[in-house]
């Protein structure tokens, strides 16, 4: 940004924005560091009057005798290596190579080093940097301030193979273990691995059963292959998104819904084609929109994650809670449970058909074993989440009735503007159709009930929802940490809702407190 200085007589010197400059060599990283320029304590490139030493490059330092390239002692080697490791970690944390790893002159050109241990170490560091840079660039889950991949023209030991470097370094496992044990890099490697896994292995997901009449149908296989090919990009992107921090995850989840909307449309077309083909050959077996259900499931999971992450990032004001929880409980989780139940029933029906076919071929009597429903746990958890959201929605409506919710004085916007902003990414989704503000107000209008519920009724209804969530979760065998965390919220909220339903602090207008420490999406309600 270029600032123009204007001098206006008695008004003195004024500064105003004149224009914007976009220079390719001056990016976000440089802009963030600009405040440090010309400060001797902070600007690494500044040489003040108090510094009289001549700055030498590696070759000049060797000729001048200020740096040793052979016969380094153990303390010297340990000191150099330890400092290089520190610089390496600093680079992985987001700083540039020029200001971290390449501050060590030995790394500039290992060919000049005569000490075998130091030379092997320098080559190893360069290879590690090159490998990490390549992996992170391929995974593409970083922003400019997260990771600096520029090499500034330095050589990365490309002329030496990895195998040769490994042979030179007897302690290879020591520092490669440290690098790949580093959290961010390991996460990026996993993202890259799973991206490849999706691309290579996803073609096996939808292959027909050997017993299906379409197993050898080339047209059906072409439909499936074409669909799976279109799945690779959005699903790779979805996996890559989870390599970003929470704020960027939420932003990118909103954008990827457009790709999944297109994929949903294609899935429905393939389902229709397969259904018609299957009916001609096996009328008793139906395709049942398997692909569309699968894409719809992921669509719903993305939408739910998008909304819930807003609580984790503390984006919502208290007066917005009620329509966020309403959208989750009455709409998204209802759709999700319907989708899961349909997929579960379809899978069970397919298994029954296969069992009947096996019985017809075999005369042996087999004992019937009661099979667990494949998606029962996820359906159960979705029911618990839905009840928690419904409980919070009714709690917020009751608080609003009692005047315990502080609302802003809308001047430049309104509740409708905020509502539409919160759910704007859903407008690109066809299934499920987005609920617009006027629809929401109509669907959530309490005056349609006779008589309209009072705040005490809503508190009691919220208590029942929390109680239902508690019962569902307590019946889960082998509960995990998530189940226990939700229970820590549901139990105290049951007590608080019953107190409020009985008239406790009804006349108080002090807003309640919401403690999100037990669970990131559902708060413990505390009365003040």
Automatic annotation (TrEMBL):
Q: Which terms are listed as keywords in the entry?
A: Cytoplasm
Report the domain of life of the source organism. Eukaryota
Q: Which InterPro entries match?
A: NAA35-like_N (IPR057983), Naa35_N (IPR007244), TPR_NAA35 (IPR057982)
Q: Where is this region: Disordered?
A: 351-376
Q: Bias category Basic residues: which stretches?
A: 361-374
The family assignment reads: Belongs to the MAK10 family.
Name-wise, this protein is N-alpha-acetyltransferase 35, NatC auxiliary subunit
Q: Which organism is it from?
A: Laticauda laticaudata
């Amino acid at each position: 940004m270029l600032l123009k200085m204007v001098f206006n007589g008695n008004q003195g010197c004024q500064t105003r924005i004149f224009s914007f400059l976009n220079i390719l060599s001056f990016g976000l990283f440089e802009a963030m560091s600009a405040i440090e320029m010309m400060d001797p304590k902070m600007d690494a490139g500044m040489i003040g009057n108090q510094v009289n030493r001549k700055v030498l490059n590696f070759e000049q330092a060797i000729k001048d005798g200020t740096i040793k390239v052979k016969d380094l002692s153990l303390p010297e080697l340990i000191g150099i290596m330890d400092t290089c490791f520190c610089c390496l970690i600093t680079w992985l944390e987001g700083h540039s190579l020029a200001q971290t790893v390449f501050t060590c002159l030995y790394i500039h050109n290992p060919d000049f080093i005569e000490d075998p241990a130091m030379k092997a170490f320098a080559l190893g560091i360069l290879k590690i940097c090159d490998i990490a840079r390549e992996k992170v660039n391929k995974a593409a889950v970083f922003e400019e301030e997260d990771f600096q991949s520029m090499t500034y023209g330095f050589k990365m030991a490309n002329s030496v193979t990895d195998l040769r470097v490994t042979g030179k370094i007897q302690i290879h496992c020591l520092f490669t273990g440290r690098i790949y044990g580093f959290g961010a890099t390991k996460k990026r490697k996993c993202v890259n691995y799973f991206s490849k896994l999706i691309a290579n292995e996803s073609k096996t997901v939808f292959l027909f059963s050997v017993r299906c009449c379409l197993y050898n149908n080339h047209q059906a296989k072409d439909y499936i292959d074409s669909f799976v090919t279109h799945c690779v990009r959005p699903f790779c992107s979805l996996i890559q998104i989870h390599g970003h921090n929470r704020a960027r995850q939420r932003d990118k989840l909103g954008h990827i819904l457009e790709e999944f909307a297109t994929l949903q449309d294609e899935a429905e077309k393939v389902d229709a084609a397969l259904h018609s083909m299957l009916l001609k050959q096996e009328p008793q077996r139906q395709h049942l929109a398997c692909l569309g259900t699968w894409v719809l499931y992921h669509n719903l999971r993305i939408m739910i994650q998008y909304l819930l992450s807003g609580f984790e990032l503390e984006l919502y004001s208290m007066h917005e809670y009620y329509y966020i929880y309403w959208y989750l409980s009455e709409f998204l989780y209802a759709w999700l449970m319907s989708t899961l139940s349909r997929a579960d029933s379809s899978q069970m029906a397919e298994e029954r058909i296969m069992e009947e076919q096996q019985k017809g071929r075999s005369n042996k009597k087999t004992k019937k074993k009661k099979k667990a429903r494949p998606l029962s746990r996820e359906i159960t958890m979705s029911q618990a989440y839905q009840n928690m959201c419904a409980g919070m929605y009714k709690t917020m409506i009751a608080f609003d009735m009692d005047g315990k919710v502080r609302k802003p004085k809308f001047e430049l916007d309104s509740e409708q503007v905020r509502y539409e902003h919160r759910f704007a990414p859903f407008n690109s989704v066809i299934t499920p159709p987005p609920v617009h503000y006027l629809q929401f107000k109509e669907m959530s209008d309490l005056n349609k009930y006779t008589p309209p519920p009072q705040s005490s009724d809503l508190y009691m209804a919220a208590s029942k929802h929390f109680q239902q969530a508690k019962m569902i979760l307590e019946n889960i065998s082998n509960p995990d940490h998530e189940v226990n965390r939700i229970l820590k919220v549901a139990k105290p909220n049951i007590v608080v809702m019953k107190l409020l339903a009985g008239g406790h602090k009804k006349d108080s207008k002090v807003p309640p407190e919401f403690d999100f420490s037990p669970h990131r999406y559902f708060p413990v309600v505390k009365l003040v």
